[in-house]
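Notebook entry, structure prediction.
Reason for the run: the old model in the group folder had no record of what sequence produced it. Starting over properly, with the input documented here first.
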Amino acid sequence: MYAKSLAFLLHELLSSPDPFADTLKRFEHLRGFGLLPRGREKAGVRLSDKEIVSAVLGFAPVAIGLSGLASVSLGGLHAVGGAAGSFRNSVTLQDAIVAVLASDESCRSVVVVTLTIDRTNKGDDYHARAVFNESGSRKTVSFVSDMATSLLSEGREAAYDHDRIHGPSARQLSLGPDFFRKLRREVEISRYVNLPLKTDWAEYESEEEKAEFHRKLGAKRSSRYLNLPVETAVAWPREPMKVIFADHELVLFPRTKENSHSISIDLVNHRLTDIEARTLLNRFLSILSWCEDQHAILGDGWSGNPVPRPIPKHEKGGTIAGQWVFDRSLPTNEELLQRLAYYREGLNAREAGLVSYEVLSFFKVFEQRVQGDGRAPNPTKIWIRDNFDEVARQLDAEALKRFNEARGSKPVHKYIFDNCRVATAHASEKFPSDADASLEIRRLYSAAAVIQALARHFIRTEFNFSSSYISDEVSQ
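New structure, fully documented this time:
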């Protein structure tokens, strides 16, 4: 099946009565991510099963500009419980759907495949759930990020909550057996008849213009770009621009109605890892910040595009309540007020991407204000040691795993005090902390999640302070 034929089919099955032009835009984004053949010369190339599945996954988000990112993210999800707990021993969601399309019997076994985009405070999370009829019984397979390594070992699917929504809300696209039977039939007919491609080439005209545009920005056939958003007040080019920094080519995209400021760098041709590239980009932004005395924060994006891509805006807004009720009094305890201020400061630092200040602010919430003589044990370390196990039970398993891997064999109270609090507040030869270094940033982010949980536990337990809008005290 040709890409143009698949576009007509998927538009009929997934997008009608929306304009067909919207479907063509989705396919354009998929080409930009290297998920479909690119260029006029490849228009007559028949799509592989994986490319067909990638196109299907690109219809999961409502926003057309997220089609490529969603397809990559969903396709790379891994089965909870590994291959043994999946459909036809497939490891990823893309492999599982390819296995579904492999036979009529596999299509008939599908009850539903649901693609989910969870909306969280930190952005979008991707998940999927598939239900199959196997040997007269129902089998449910969930697919999660490959970073959730604790869920990928054999047997973990038995205790997993397959119906859970991970965020406050989610967008879902559910595909039933009729969808897969129709898609398989049309693909099989197309391959059997083997008709020559018929197209007016109109959809490739703009693509050829973009190919020339990307060539001027430095894209090559072997390129694989890392694309990251930037929140900044420094002067930024008005048009997309290639910049040379430390013998590397950076591509800067300006903010528009649809996109954020962003930077892209070719990992393959510069022979950089994601970690090395992020460190280099942080160095670049540090110099810009110094020159203009303005902030510049590097955010999270993705890698793998054959061309540099701008980052779609992801606006965050507060929740709007249907009935907003607030009945809280102003605490009279000055110490509680100060610690609440530190807690909000930590959340603000997280939003700004300032992880070192996030760590320090959350730490100050539970720091014990007792003057010691230097001989007695540090009271803050004692409090961390005595409360960590209880707090750890409330943490996400993957966040706790990353934290423990970072601290190694060092006791948790010493690691938080020395390697997190001291390193960020008073970096030294003994406790180094480079805020531009990508590995150090990752270490502090994993620590920040734990330190925030400790801070919240401290306020709730030490002051019996409620998180409800209508009650001052925690209910017993």
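Summary: The longest helix spans residues 438-462.
The old model has been moved to the deprecated folder.
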